[in-house]
Amino acid sequence: MRYSAILRAVLSAALLAGCVSPTSFAPGSSVVEMLARAGPPTDIRFDRNGDELWEYATGPQGFETYLVRSGPDRKVKEVTQLLTDDQLMKIVPGTMTKADVRHLLGRPSEQTFTAAGTVWSWRFKRYGVAPGYLTVRFNPDNTVMERIAIIDPTGGGKMDGK
């Protein structure tokens, strides 16, 4: 009896933890509290200004990657969804590198290596609704060749390239 009560408590806690999203943390929240409730991030890096950036990627099958920015006081400054049409449009072919793209969109869900260069892709929701893919193709020198947003063909959309 006691064992089953403990098991139920552990399973309930696990289910609740799975429901917590980084978006539920407002600016000013403690990153310690966020870590306890949302779990460890998929990546941690630092911005040039010293802010700590915690990435919560739901890929390869998920449509969202959240970036949580905190300052030296260990308080959340902002939570940003990285996989959006607006973020994709910030990528400038010919001038940006893989590191620049990684900073803007987070870790790619998929990497493909071809003779012409590398291709990174992320699942996302086009205009926040239609499932699709963000795809960035790199030149052999690791600069961006092109950026593309593709609607998932099973969703009845069309390809839109830039």
Question: Topology of this protein?
Answer:
Layout: H1 2-19, H2 31-38, E1 43-46, E2 52-57, E3 65-70, E4 76-81, H3 85-89, H4 98-105, E5 110-114, E6 117-126, E7 130-138, E8 144-151, E9 159-161
Antiparallel strand pairs: 1-2, 2-3, 3-4, 5-6, 6-7, 7-8, 8-9
Short description:
This protein has 162 residues and is an alpha+beta fold. The chain has four helices and nine strands.
Model description:
This protein has 162 residues and is of the alpha+beta class. The chain folds into two domains: 21-81, Beta-lactamase Inhibitory Protein, Chain:B, domain 1 (2-Layer Sandwich), CATH 3.30.1450; 85-161, Beta-lactamase Inhibitory Protein, Chain:B, domain 1 (2-Layer Sandwich), CATH 3.30.1450. 24% of the residues lie in helices and 35% in strands. It has a five-stranded antiparallel beta sheet. A hairpin with a 5-residue loop joins strand 3 and strand 4.
